[in-house]
Structure formats: C-alpha cells, structure tokens
Design a protein that fits this description.
Chain lengths: 259, 751
C-alpha cells in the first residue's frame, strides 16, 4: 500500500470512527449533522487536505456558533443532500436550494440567505440560447434533482439532451470536455468557472432565464423532524444580518452583494 | 303593590351602573382607540419592517451593486490586464443579471443597457487584445483606438449608473419620508386620541365624582353626621336633605328609623328607669309584702313590708318553704309543681307564714314565675298581703252567720228591687213559715202577710232609707196556716250598691198576752193606788182634824209630853197626807196625762219660774233661760212640773255660801233635744246618781231638807212617759246639771 493510500484509508477510518462515535454518543444529542453540497467556488472549497472551506462552510459554522450547536459538516451531492434531509440523517443542509411546493412537503426552509437566477452558459461563439428550445437544440448539463433539470425536463426535446450530473465540478468538466453544449445553472455559481482558465471562451448566454422556478431566494433546508432547529436557525440568520457578520462574510467571497 | 317614595326615586345603583358603563365605554373606546392606534402603528411598523425597510435595503444593496457595476465596468473598460477586465466583465455581467438590480423596471432596463454596453466594451477590448496578439505588440494604434472607443463607450454609462444611484437614493429617502410621515401621522393621531381619551375620562371621572359626591358621599356624610348626632344623644333633630336616589332614601329612612328607634329606646330607657325607680319605690314602700326567691325557695330579696310581716330583721337565710305553714305547704306543693312543669305561670293561695315569734300570719300570696323562654322558672315573685283581719272578719262572719243561722228567731232578707222577694232566710224563718228555704226564696211579703198594705209597701220599696230601722207589728201566716201577730224589725241595708231589707221576726203572741196582763195589772194597781190614796186621805184628814181638836181643847190638861206626843201625831198625819198626795200625783202622771203636742219650752220654763217666784226670791237665786229654747213634743202641764221640780231642787239644795244660779239650756241631738238645768248647788256624789231618781229615796235627813223624796221620781216618770231619758252630771260641791231628752217638735211627723 502506498503512503498516500494509507493516509486516505486512515483518514476514512478515522472519519468513520468519528461518525460512529458521534452516532453512539447520547451525550452529543445536540450535535447537528450538516450536509454541504460541493458546489462551485466560492460556496464550497475543498483544499487538497480535504478540508472544507468557502461561503457555505463559513456560513454554516457561523450560524451553528450563533445557535450554540455543535455541527458536523459533511460534504455531499445535491441529490444526496435532498434525500438525507428528507430522511432526517441530515438535520440541516446547505445546497443553495430554491423553495418549491414539492420540496416544502419534504423539508423545512429557512429564511432566505441570498437570491439567485439561472443562466445558460455556453461557448462565447454560440449564439444566444432560447430557453424554450434549449432541450430541443442543445445537450445541456444540469445538476441532478436541481430545478434546472426540472425546467429542462418541462421543455420539449429529447431526453438525451438533458445531461444530469451530480456535482458542479463534473458539470464544468463536461461542458468544457464536450459532454454537453451548454450548462444551465445558478448565475453566481458560474462566476468562478468563468474567471478561471477553464472557463475561457465561455460566457453567459444572454440574460438569466426568465422563469420563476429558476430564480428567487436561496434557503438552507432543515429536516422536518427539527422545527426547533429551524426556529433557532432563522433567529441566527436574522442576527448575523443585523450585526453585519453576514455582510462581511458575503463581501469576502463575492464581488457584489448577492443578497 | 304599594309604592314607597323611595321606589319613585332613581336608583343609585343604576346611576353608578350608568357611570360605570359610561366609564367602561370610555375606557373601551380609549382602549379601542389605543388598540386601533397600536394596531395601526403596529401595521405601519410591520409594513415598514416587511416592505419599507426591505425596499430601502433593496435600494441600498442596489446602490452598492451599481457602485460595484460602475467599478467593474470601469475595470472592464480601462484595465490593462486582460485577466482583470475579463473577470470584471464577467462579474459585471453576473451582477447586471442579479435580482438585486431587477426589482425596478427602469433600473433593470438601464442596467441591461449598461450591460449591453459592457458587452460592446468587452468586444472592443477583445479586438484590441486580438490586434495586439496578432501583431505581437504592433497595431497598437488600432488596439489603442479600440481601447479608447471602449473607454468612451463606457464613460457615459457611469453617469447613467450614478444617476440610477441617485434615483435609488431618492426612492429610499422618499420611502423613509413617507414612512416617517405615516409614523408621525399615526403618532399625531395617537396623541390626539390620548388627549381625547384623557379629556373624556376626566370628564367622566368628574361627572362620576360629582354624582358620587352629590348622590352618595354627601348624603352618606349627612346621614353619618345625623347618626353621630343621634348616637351622641343630640336632642335637636337634624333635617336631612331630600334624597336623590332610592338607596339614599332607604339609608335616610333607615337613619330616621334608627334615630326614632334610639329616641324610643331612650324614652323606653327613661321610662324603664322611672319604672324601675317606681318599682323599687313600690317594692320598698309597698304595704304589700314582696319577696323574690329562687327556684329552691331561698329568699333573694324582700321588702320591709315582708320583713315586718314575718317579724324578721333581714331576709338573709330565709326560705319560703320554711316560712310557710306545714298545712299550707301541702296545699301549695301541687300549684308549685304545675308552675315548675310549665303548666302555669302564676297561682294565688291564702296561706300562713310563720313569724319570728312562732305565730302565724295569714297572707293572700300571689306567686308568679320568672323564666327565660320555655326554660323552667329560675325565680319567683311573691306578693303577700296580710289578710289576718280579713280572715278574722271571715271567721267572725262565719260565726255571726252561724249565730244567725242558728238563731231561734226568724231572720230574713228581702230584695226591694225584686218586689220584696225573700233572698235569704235562716232556719228559724223556715220553721216559722213551715216551708223550705228554697220555697221561701220565691216568696214575697203578701205571700205570708195577709194584712199587708201593699201600696204602702210598694211605696216603701221606692223610697229606700239606708240604715234606718222600722219596728212594726203585723201578722204572719205561719206553719199550719195560723195567722199570728209578730213584731218585725225591718232595717234598710246596702250591699254591693244594692238595697236590701233585713227583717227580724219576733213572735209576740206571748208578749202580747203578758203585756195585756201587765196592762191590766197596772190599771188595777193605778186604780188601787188612786183609790187607796184618795180613800186614805179622808180617814187621815179625820185623824189629823181630831188630833188638832184634841190639842186645842185639851192642851191645858196635858202635860208637856202629852202635848208633844199630840204634836208628833199631827206632824205624822200631815207628812202622811203629803206622801199620799205625792203618791197620788205620781200615779196620775200616766193616768191623767195629755197626748204630746208641740209646746214651746221657753214658755214652759218661764211658767215654772213664775210658779217658783217666791222661792227664788226667798233664796236670792237667779234663773237664766238660754236663747233659742226649742219647740218640743210634750204634755205642757207635766213639762212645767218637770222643770219646776228641777229648778225647785236647785233652789232647795243650794250651797250655803252662794246664791243659787240656775241655767236652763237646750242642745239638739238628732231627732231629740237635750235640755239641761244647771245649778251651782251642793252637788251629788256619783254613787248616788241613780238612787236619787228612785221613789221616796232621800240622801239627807228630813230635818236637813224637807220633802218626801218623790220629786225626781216624778221627773223620771214624766220624761219616760215622753219617751226620753233623764240623768245627772254632778260632783259633790260642784253643782249639778240635770239633763233630759225630749222629741223635737219638727220630727214629730215621722213618729
């Protein structure tokens, strides 16, 4: 076994022991399992050591500190996040989730933390995309179980033109690797991609999609079994907005006010 | 149902309720206003928090993002590094499409325009970069031209964005001003409401205070002052104002009633004190013996009369049981037991109480129990009245009644108001009439007196003469049907305001027979005395005449003794002659007397004095006749002789050392006159006061005072013939007063 593999194995074992230990300890009943999607920067940054960072990570830690809760952050994919929040194995989830009636039946939504729109991203050489014809004309990458996937699914066109991918990293890789002709994703999430070398030659394709399902407030989701946690979370969000902590955190990760 | 004045008055409760309701309405109105104001304020605040503040924050964020857009656009247009202006352009594009700049159509439209310009600027910068890359640094002029065009293209956008910032700032200010104006309006409204509410509440409180003061406090104070004055005993009556409410009318009425009750209580207390004083005075001074005892008969209090009654000094340690005579205690026991059992509250009993010396006194004891409610009596009040006299009287009455009942003489009682019906008769009356008492009590006088003068009797019934007694003779039909003579003594009595006639019947058959015998004997005796005295005078005159003849013819032949003997015989014959004449006069008083008729005593006395004029003159005496000598019923010659004898005695028995002083006077006594003949003579010893009226009785020798000793006997017989009495009041050597009674002439008609 190579040293790197050993370290990875040991890290996994330690993480497993930690999870098992946390699960077996009744004294940690107040601990909150927090799921964080590994989206694009600056929301989540995973350094080479596996340490999580970024806007969502700092926001999660800031809110947990304000709530006086001990939170255990676990990176996950967006589909996993929704599933585990629904199951209750995650009590709180940071996935830049838009509120829809269907989701409200399965989970609780916090006060809005910022607002988003969805935009098509494609090569600068391509003409502007008509959202209603996107599925019919282009292979479009979307995050699985996202509203963007649902939007495309509602548009006419072949199923193969909807390329559902679990993570943003794989989505941008697919876009630049030719797996899809365009990508439909939150506008802000594209900023980092466009500013990196990987995103050279790509740009927003026209203005954001004018559809209520693809724009609006972004929320933190909470398991339906923890309404108490939602109350504490909303109070914490209000507190960090009032004392300026949230504004400072946002300014550190975004070039403009995304709220 | 009757209505009282208080029922017609408004109710204080209603007024207070109205005040309360008004106050409650006012408070509710104020609370409602405050609620509305608060709700409005809250709504404004909530609206501000939910809408205005987010809109202002939205504009602030948009203003900030516009500022960033200006910066990113400027960087895009002017940055040297392609990396910088590419990143700035991407960011500017993302920013331009961010919702924070999409809330306002004009901003959105302007930003989209600016974004389009940025896209053009990026195009020119890309072409400039391409020129520079293609010429390896050459073609810089065209590249610079592109860059310049890019900058010139951008510069006007900054003004647009700054203008948008100003617009957003103005919008924010407008929103804030509008909100603040609304808040100020709400504040003004709230202040006005508060002032109005305060004024309204003050007005209601003032009205409530006025109403409470006028309708409650002031009347209560006046009632309280009146009641205080009443309780302090103020005699003056304080008038209360007219009540404003029914409750105050009730209170004032209650106060008036209380005052009247206290006044009545004071009067009762005064009356009670006076009554107690009277009772105490009565208790102390009552002639009736009053004693208070406990349930065991122990004396608790007794008045002086009781102590005097039982002859004790103090009431301590006395017991009524011990004081009561044993025989009477046995009679009293069942009465006392009934009272202890609650069957009676009082009883009355004649009983004997033992006195301190062991004797007994009869009392009429009235005993009354004192008890609390239905409880057994704990005290007794005994009022004892000394009935010893009554008991003695009753015993005497019983004795007298027994005497009357057992009397051998018939005694009865008639009711004149019932036609003379017999209402009571003793056993002798029953025997007298030979019938039962029951039958007797149905009879009237005609039933037993056949000779009754019915009209006269009826007239007598109509004219009762209380306590007068009339004795009369009549006849009765007695047992066996015989009619016998009786003497009835009828006396008017009065009992219980009703006249009665008590009759006493005497069978006079024997008396009449004896009276007839005596009358015949007296007539015979008078005839004998008259004949004897008349016939004796002739031989006595012959003896005296011949003795006197013998003395004249033969005196010289007789010696002194013989002459003296003849003289003795002559004197004896003369005295005998005088005795016979006096005896004849004495006997003639009844046989030769006249029927009594009214005569003037002054005339009679003067006639007597005229007959004695020589004797009066011889003795140097003086006879005084009092003024107003009355008219009396009498036989004038006998009365002249009566006074002549008495005045003559007064002259004869004169004191040797003083001249006779004789007074004739009269004094009325009932139906009679008492005539007195007083002198200053030698007087008569009391032991001889009866003897002097006996015939031929002398207190002195014949040698001292001449006379036969029949004068006063004649006086006595004359007075008795006139139905009177004669007596003497005298002491030896103190003079004498002879008194006799004669019927007054003015009452003769009633005889």
């Amino acid at each position: 076994m190579q040293p790197a593999d050993f370290y990875v194995t040991m890290r996994a074992l330690m993480l497993l022991c930690l999870i098992l230990g946390l699960a077996a300890s009744p004294a940690r009943a107040q601990d909150v399992a927090v799921g964080i999607t590994t989206t694009a920067q600056p929301f989540v940054i995973t350094d080479p050591s596996g340490r999580l960072d970024g806007f969502n990570v700092e926001l999660a830690r800031l809110l947990c500190a304000r709530m006086g809760r001990t939170c255990s952050l676990e990176p996950t994919t967006f589909p996993q996040l929704l599933s585990r929040i629904e199951e209750g194995t995650f009590q709180m989830g940071f996935g830049n989730t838009l509120k829809t009636p269907e989701r409200e039946k399965k989970m609780l939504f916090s006060a809005p933390i910022w607002r988003s729109t969805s935009s098509f991203v494609t090569a600068t050489t391509r003409p502007a995309i008509d959202p209603t014809q996107a599925r019919a004309q282009l292979r479009t990458c979307v995050v699985r179980k996202s509203m963007q996937e649902a939007f495309l699914a509602a548009q006419p066109g072949p199923d193969e033109n909807i390329v559902a991918i679990s993570t943003y990293r794989e989505l941008f890789d697919g876009l630049t690797g030719g797996a899809c002709d365009a990508a439909l994703l939150p506008t802000v999430n594209v900023l980092d991609f466009l500013n990196r070398e990987q995103g050279r030659g790509y740009d927003y394709s026209g203005p954001p999609v004018d559809d209520s399902r693809l724009s609006g407030s972004v929320h933190i989701v909470v398991s339906k079994s923890r309404p108490d946690l939602l109350t504490a979370l909303d109070a914490a969000i209000s507190a960090i907005k009032l004392d300026g902590s949230y504004r400072i955190l946002m300014a550190r990760h975004f070039p403009f006010d995304i709220n | 149902m009757q209505t009282t004045p208080s029922d017609r008055l408004p109710s204080l409760r209603r007024r207070l309720a109205a005040i309360g309701i008004a106050l409650a309405v006012a408070v509710l109105a104020v609370l409602g206003a405050m609620l509305v104001s608060g709700s409005t304020t809250h709504r404004v605040v909530e609206d501000s928090r939910i809408h205005t503040v987010p809109r202002i924050l939205e504009r602030q964020r948009a203003t900030a993002n516009l500022e960033r857009l200006i910066r990113f656009g400027w960087i895009t247009a002017t940055a040297t590094s392609a990396h910088d202006w590419r990143q700035a352009s991407v960011t500017a594009q993302a920013l331009a499409y961010h919702p924070s700049l999409s809330f306002d159509d004009e901003v959105r439209r302007q930003v989209m325009t600016v974004h389009a310009i940025i896209r053009q600027v990026v195009g020119k910068r890309e072409r400039a970069l391409t020129l520079r890359t293609a010429t390896h640094g050459g073609g810089s002029a065209e590249a610079q031209e592109q860059d310049r065009e890019a900058r010139e293209l951008w510069m006007p956008q900054e003004a647009i964005l700054v203008s948008l910032q100003g617009k957003l700032a103005d919008d924010g200010v407008r929103l804030m001003v509008e909100r603040f104006d609304r808040v100020a309006e709400i504040a003004d409204l709230t202040r006005q409401l508060a002032i109005g509410a305060a004024v309204l509440i003050l007005l209601i409180l003032a009205a409530a205070t006025l109403i409470v003061w006028r309708n409650l406090l002031l009347p209560v104070l006046q009632v309280a002052q009146t009641m205080r004055g009443t309780l302090d005993g103020g005699a003056q009556e304080r008038s209360l104002p007219s009540p404003a409410t029914a409750e105050m009318a009730v209170m004032q009425n209650a106060a008036v009633q209380l005052r009247e009750a206290l006044h009545r209580a004071a009067l009762r207390e005064t009356a009670l004190k006076a009554s107690e004083q009277r009772l105490s005075s009565i208790f102390a001074t009552s002639e009736a013996a009053i004693v208070l005892s406990d349930a065991q008969g122990q004396v608790m209090q007794a008045n002086d009369s009781f102590l005097r009654l039982i002859d004790h000094d103090k009431a301590l340690d006395l017991s009524l049981d011990h004081l009561t005579h044993g025989d009477d205690a046995a009679r009293e026991a069942p009465l006392l037991r009934a009272m202890l059992n609650g069957e009676t509250d009082r009883y009355r009993l004649d009983k004997r109480l033992r006195r301190h010396d062991g004797s007994c006194v009869w009392v009429d004891a009235s005993v009354r129990a004192i008890r609390d409610g239905d409880a057994p009596p704990h005290q007794f009040v005994t009022v004892a009245i000394d009935i010893s006299e009554r008991m003695r009287a009753e015993q005497e009455l019983h004795f007298i009644r027994a005497l009357v009942d057992q009397s051998a003489d018939p005694i009865y009682c008639l009711d004149p108001l019932d036609g003379g019906r017999m209402v009571w008769a003793n056993a002798a009356t029953c025997r007298h009439f030979g019938t039962s008492q029951k039958h007797l009590l149905t009879m009237r006088i005609p039933d037993w007196d056949p000779n009754i003068d019915a009209p006269a009797v009826e007239a007598m019934w109509q004219n009762p003469e209380p306590l007068s007694t009339r004795v009369f003779e009549t006849t009765h039909r007695v047992a066996g049907g015989d009619i016998i003579p009786v003497e009835v003594s009828a006396t008017w009595l009065e009992h219980d305001g009703r006249p009665y006639v008590a009759g006493y019947i005497r069978d006079i058959r024997d008396r009449n027979r004896m009276l007839m015998a005596v009358r015949r004997s007296n007539e015979d005796l008078q005839q004998f005395a008259y004949v004897a005295s008349h016939d004796l005078q002739e031989p006595l005159r012959m003896v005296a005449s011949f003795l006197q003849l013998l003395e004249r013819r033969y005196a010289d032949r007789l010696d002194t003794a013989g002459r003296e003997y003849i003289q003795f015989a002559v004197d004896g014959a003369v005295r005998m002659k005088q005795l016979i004449e006096d005896l004849l006069a004495y006997s003639r008083i009844d046989s030769r007397g006249l029927q009594p008729q009214p005569v003037d005593l002054a005339v009679i006395a003067q006639a007597a004095c005229d007959n004695l004029v020589s004797a009066i003159a011889e003795n140097g005496g003086r006879v005084s006749l009092s003024d107003g000598l009355p008219m009396v019923m009498g036989d004038q010659p006998q009365l002249i002789r009566l006074l002549q004898n008495l005045i003559g005695n007064a002259l004869k028995y004169r004191a040797p050392d003083r001249f006779p002083d004789i007074t004739v006077s009269a004094q009325r006594h009932g139906d009679t006159w008492i005539i007195a003949v007083s002198d200053n003579g030698i007087g008569i010893a009391p032991q001889y006061h009866d003897r002097i009226f006996m015939i031929f009785q002398r207190l002195h020798g014949i040698a001292a005072y001449e006379g036969t000793g029949i004068g006063l006997a004649i006086c006595k017989r004359i007075v008795e013939r006139h139905g009177g009495e004669i007596w003497v009041e005298s002491q030896e050597n103190t003079g004498s007063t002879f008194k006799f009674t004669l019927h007054a002439a003015d009452t003769a008609a009633h005889e």
